[in-house]
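One chain given next:
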Amino acid sequence: MLQPGAAAKVGKMSSPKPADGSYFQLYESRKGVFPKATDGFYRRLKWGIMIVTLAIYYITPWIRWDRGPYAPDQAVLVDLANRRFYMFSIEIWPHEFYYVVGLLVMAGIGLFLVTSAVGRAWCGYACPQTVWTDLFQHVERWIDGDRNAQFRLQDAPWGSQKIAKRFGKWAIWLFIAFWTGGAWIMYFADAPTLTVDFWTGQAAPVAYATVGILTAITFIFGGFMREQVCIYMCPWPRIQTAMMDEKSLLVTYKDWRGEKRGSVKKAKANPGEFGDCIDCNQCVAVCPTGIDIREGPQIGCITCALCIDACDSVMEQVGRPRGLIDYITADDAEAEAKGAETPPTWKTLLRPRTIAYFLIWASIGLGMLFVLGNRTRLDIAVQQDRNPVYVQLASGEIRNNYTAKIRNMESRPREVEISVFGLEGATIWEGGTARPAQQTKFVTHVAPDSVAKVRVFVVAPPAAQESTSYVMQVRGVGDDAETDSEELFFKRPGNE
């Protein structure tokens, strides 16, 4: 069922034709939402967040970060071809994907924390749909004028002026949408190189397809669907609603103070009969989803708080206290209606639920930082040959064959030493079957930021045991003290 006050409604449906031949509509057609410009603390906050988020999105791919001569110098890069993720000094390999999972878990818990504390603040300030819609609406006001001018232009017949404004506005929207899609692909390849390839027709087809799809989505969602995405398409409002309770801060109209509504003139003529709300509808005029906050909590409210700015401005003009519409919890609203004092906002935010979310969020973050700071950039993974499991030499000694993958996760070439421990009388060598005399370790070269596959042979004297546990270790040569090891079993006859 549609929420009361939701101005954006879709479709038309008529009942079966009654006997008198009349029809009535069950659903109202969508009405365009043209928010009025306003000013105030929350409007300036939205301006700041919009500028910061858009700047991060468009500029980040162009930031350079020196990782040495063997690694890309783009600060943030998702290198799918080489299966790497770079973020400034951090490099994530495929086997370290748990860091990405950890970041996603932190993002989810962070949203739970924000929602339980201040309601749908994500939707109101930082959601991409909100940010780009806000940007498109500013462009619309610049071309078409403010709310009333937009209504007049919508109702006006098509003429030269309307055509010029419509196509001018759509051209700017399309330009923004195109650069939005273009900026996205820059995160997956070197931005300057990809830009040249894109405009010279040498980029991969997937790059052009991605830009086209994202351009269309941004243009349609930000320019034409707007509040419909927030109210009908996005599942997040339903999820957020389940996470809020009576102690969550919400944008609330204080009906016990505002009702009964009446103009300033009526209130002066009838003292005590009317509340503070003068029914100016400014809260509705500035709402980006077109709802009336005075009708209570609604799924269409994204808690952007622009109605607070508009109402506070009106209250100042008519000489009445601010806060008729305010951020307040349901519990505090009930207490305030009864005349009781409400606690300060910081006490409202510090409650067991938000503290628990924060501790979980912080623990995951600190744990990831600890693991990240203590990880080695040298890694070994060993696979024993299964056919044959072992080879018995003419001398009676037993040889096991292995394939070792040495991962060098630094942007420089490295010399590494491979050795074995815990296998008495063992000899180890690399490459062919020609056996060096009594060699217990050898040195091999690993290219920067790559995995070297090394053929390893280990020979040990026969023993009573069918298999012996031992360790194969890789260690940096010289001042490079990093090590990694893997426990193996040396196979002998009787252990096939």
Summary: Residues 61 and 187 are 6 Å apart (CA to CA). The first helix runs from residue 41 to 59. The radius of gyration is 33 Å.
